[in-house]
TrEMBL record:
Organism name: Methylobacterium isbiliense
Aminoacyl-transfer RNA synthetases class-II family profile domain boundaries: 38-341
Domain of life: Bacteria
Subunit structure: Homodimer.
Cell compartment(s), UniProt: Cytoplasm
Gene: proS
Alphabetized SUPFAM superfamilies for the sequence: Class II aaRS ABD-related, Class II aaRS and biotin synthetases
Key words of the record: Aminoacyl-tRNA synthetase, ATP-binding, Cytoplasm, Ligase, Nucleotide-binding, Protein biosynthesis
Name of the molecule in the record: Proline--tRNA ligase
Length: 439
């Protein structure tokens, strides 16, 4: 992609309304634009990151055996009356009337709708277990939308819903998501700690929040430092191995970790002093087991092996991809800008032409772009007619993992410069050796 043809509205000034670094950097790097309070347009660079975050989430959901669907954003109030949540949900729910005066709403979550979909199709234990997930926009009329996409009103959520015959089955479904979440956050370059959490309006009694430690986080958390060094389950983990998964979950819940709502000061005091962390964190995921809370009132029943009908046991499992984009920046930036982990970078390489208009430099850049792209790397080629200083600053700001710097002086010696954004390390390479070096 040539920058001259792209849409990258970089801001020179630091926007005053942005209180935290990720919000400032997302605005400055032209990733998002606020359209109303807590409602954002995703511009190309931001969208590229969001899509990559979703791709990792999707790959790990699929690996765990969950199946993707896509439900509408607009739901009928009738459905929410069946579960009794329509009145209970309160002001965070955006209620809408259509032209026939029918009560509708913009979904803040989808337990009711997915239960309706399930009950229409599945009647027997033979069709269980099932886990259906989607990645879809949600709306919650937050009292205090802030920090950009960290707490917005319209936001993207990956929400999965599991259906099992009994509690033991549901526990295994919960464990699958638990392990999938550990892998997902690790692949995104984050250290997420599962913490005992309250279930809130979703209901139920078994719940963990996945928390990234960050000073700007809105949650107050208490945990054992040891979690930061716990090994993440391997890609080859067998999701059908009931005892194996339970072992992983037991290990990852063996030390103290709780959000402020679930905090037990006495239990925390028993953690060795050097291991104790009272910190702030960002909730990036949340998993719940809530039994028959929705299946019972909504009549989602299946016949068991004994011929008896019973309500299915359910769980729900959320991740916030749009919040994650901000959380990744909170965890990975420096004075000069964003430092994208390779797995989510909007492009792999920033190609900087230090003398646009110089025939030899232009030709070298065009051929490098072609070779890198042919090798499967994504390239943002800064072909603008700008000073080198401005190009260096933009490249550092948008944080692509590699910078390939091409100027007439270097080319005269048969060399170009390669810079790793994360470390600042620079090396000279011959253009012919570049693809091999980056592979
Ligand atoms: P919070 O405590 O931050 O308000 P929540 O507990 O209300 O979040 P859940 O209902 O657990 O959120 O939703 C699942 C996930 O959706 C959260 O873990 C978070 O990653 C994401 N999420 C929730 N609310 C927002 C929001 N306003 N903006 C961006 N992401 C959000
Ligand atoms: Mg909330
Ligand atoms: Mg919460
Ligand atoms: Mg939550």
């Amino acid at each position: 992609m040539r920058l001259s043809r792209y849409f990258l509205p970089i801001l020179r000034e630091t926007p005053k309304e942005a209180e935290i670094v990720s919000h400032r950097l997302m605005l400055r790097a032209g990733m998002i634009r606020q359209e109303s309070a807590g409602i954002y347009a995703w511009l190309p660079l931001g969208l590229a990151v969001l899509n990559r975050v979703c791709a990792v989430i999707r790959a790990e959901q699929d690996r765990s055996g969950a199946v993707e669907i896509l439900m509408p954003t607009i739901q009928s109030a009738e459905l929410w009356r069946e579960s009794g949540r329509y009145e209970a949900y309160g002001k965070e729910m955006l209620r809408i009337r259509d032209r026939h005066e029918r009560e509708m709403l913009f979904g803040p979550t989808n337990e009711e709708m997915v239960t309706e979909i399930f009950r229409a199709a599945i009647r027997s234990y033979k069709d269980l277990p099932k886990n259906l997930y989607q990645i879809q926009w949600k709306f919650r009329d937050e009292v205090r939308p802030r920090f950009g996409t960290m707490r917005s009103r319209e936001f993207l959520m990956k929400d999965a819903y599991s259906f099992d015959l009994d509690q033991a089955g549901a526990r295994h479904a919960y464990n699958k998501m638990f392990v999938a979440y550990l892998r997902t956050f690790a692949r995104l370059g984050l250290k997420a700690i599962p913490m005992r959490a309250e279930t809130g309006p979703i209901g139920g009694d078994l719940s963990h929040e996945f928390i990234i430690l960050a000073q700007t986080g809105e949650s107050e958390v208490f945990c054992d430092r040891a979690y930061l060094d716990f090994p993440v389950p391997a890609a080859g983990t067998d999701f059908d191995d009931v005892a194996g998964l339970q072992g992983i979950v037991d290990h990852w819940t063996s030390r103290y970790a709780a959000t402020s709502e679930m905090h037990d000061a006495d239990a925390f005091a028993a953690v060795p002093e050097a291991e104790r962390m009272a910190a702030r964190g960002i909730e990036v995921g949340h998993i719940f087991y809530f039994g028959t809370k929705y299946s019972e009132p909504m009549g989602a029943r299946v016949t068991g092996p004994d011929g008896q009908e019973r309500p299915v046991h359910m769980g729900s499992y959320g991740i916030g991809p749009s919040r994650l984009v901000a959380a990744i920046i909170e965890a990975s930036h420096d004075e000069a800008g964003i430092v994208w982990p390779d797995a989510v970078a909007p492009f792999d390489v920033a190609l900087l032409n230090l003398k646009t208009g110089d025939a030899a430099t232009d030709a070298a850049c065009a051929s490098i772009q072609g070779e890198l792209e042919a090798a499967g790397l994504t390239v943002l080629y800064d072909d603008r007619d700008e000073r080198p200083g401005a190009k260096f600053a933009s490249a550092d700001l948008i944080g692509l993992p590699w910078q390939v710097i091409v100027g007439p002086k270097g080319l005269a010696d048969g060399m170009i410069e390669l810079k790793r954004r994360a470390t600042g390390a620079r090396e000279s390479v011959a253009p012919q050796a570049l693809v091999e070096r980056l592979r």
